[in-house]
Amino acid sequence: AAPPVPAGLKVSSVNDKQVTLGWSAVSAIDLAGYQIEYKKTSDSTWSKVTVGKVITSTITGLTNGATYSFQIKSKDTSGNLSAASAVVTGIPADKQAPAVPTGLKATIGSDKDINLTWNANTESDLGGYEIAYLKYGTSTWVTATAAAGATSKTLTGLVQNVSYTIKIRAKDTLGNWSAYSAVVRAIPKDLIAPAAPKNLSVLPKDRALQLSWTANSEADLGGYQLEYKLATATSWSIASSSLSKTTTTFTKTSLVNGTTYQFRLKAKDTSLNWSLYSGIVSGIPSL
Predict the structure, then answer these.
(1) Given 25, 85, 123, 157, which is the most exposed site by the fewest CB atoms within 10 A?
(2) How far is CA 176 from the centre of its chain?
(3) CA distance 230 to 216
(4) DSSP code string of the chain
């Protein structure tokens, strides 16, 4: 006589190209094992897998996204098969997340930027990366994306002189996310100098020269430094190192009438980046 029909067949889990089944053990003295039969629901032919006296088995080599039908029969030591159990269905799916990205590094960019690099993930179904960064003193992570082939990203528009905590994770084409990488930290700086001041001009005065120039337009302008020297000299002296950002004129006094002097001007921003010098102008104090 054939052994009893297995009861309780169910799909325990699905994963990448595989479905795991479970069922209740058959009570039969001469039980040899079970025959699992499966097929794509749209097909007519069943494939068969024989297993021992177990109550779970994983069917592999399936097609992700396809619906499969499964049934099970018990088998005795004489080779007799029971009738088939009720059919259950399952859809294998890739639930395997990519590996956590490695090698994340952060370096200071040119102007309130942070440059990031990392090692490329090697998964064939890699879908891309998500970078998350947190400004010191805040609790909300901001995210940015990078394509699957990317190994670098520049975070822009940050606040200078404030620490940022940064991490990265990877996703596959089905949206499975890895865990985040270890965090790195960086402090963006403003490394962009102001433009060189323009239109520096000189107006002679008695034992003095009045300098004027066009105001720089940078939002983070910090001020100016005016330098001068005798036309015949090689080294420059500072006429003023603390000209405010709103200053556009300065009078250098205590000069010698009839003597030629040269002047040049440079601008600084609030991060102490200095511009190139303006063009040199010459003037001769006179009555």
Answers:
(1) 157
(2) 17
(3) 27
(4) -PPPPP---EEEEEETTEEEEE-PPP--TTEEEEEEEEEETT-SPPEEEEE-S-SEEEE-SPPTT--EEEEEEEEETT--B------EEE------PPPPP---EEEE-SBS-EEEE-PPP--TTEEEEEEEEEETT----EEEEE-TT--EEEE-S--TT--EEEEEEEEETT-PBPPPPPPEEE---B-PPPPPPEEEEEEEETTEEEEEEEPP--TTEEEEEEEEEETT-SS-EEEEEEE-TT--EEEE-S--TT--EEEEEEEEETT-PBPPP---EEE----
Q: Are 129 and 143 in contact (CB under 8 A)?
A: no
pLDDT at 41 over 90: yes
User: pLDDT at residue 184 above 90?
Assistant: yes
**Over the stretch 10-37, which tens digit does the pLDDT of each residue have?**
999 999 899 999 999 999 999 999 999 9
243 to 195, 203, 250, 255, 267: CA distances (angstroms): 16, 18, 8, 20, 9
CA 62 from chain centre, in angstroms, equals: 35
Residue 191: predicted pLDDT: 86
Rounded Cα distance between 72 and 74, Å, is 7
- The label of the residue with tokens 């952060």 reads 106
Angstrom CA distances, 268 to 4, 167, 212, 241, 244, stand at 90, 34, 17, 10, 10
- CA proximity to 63, closest of 84, 43, 88, 35: 43
Q: Are strands 105-108 and 114-117 parallel, antiparallel or unpaired?
A: antiparallel
Are the beta carbons of 85 and 5 closer than 8 angstroms?
A: yes
Cα 149 → chain centroid: 13
Q: Please give the Cα distance from 171 to 113 (Å, whole number).
A: 25
What residue has token string 């100098």? 193
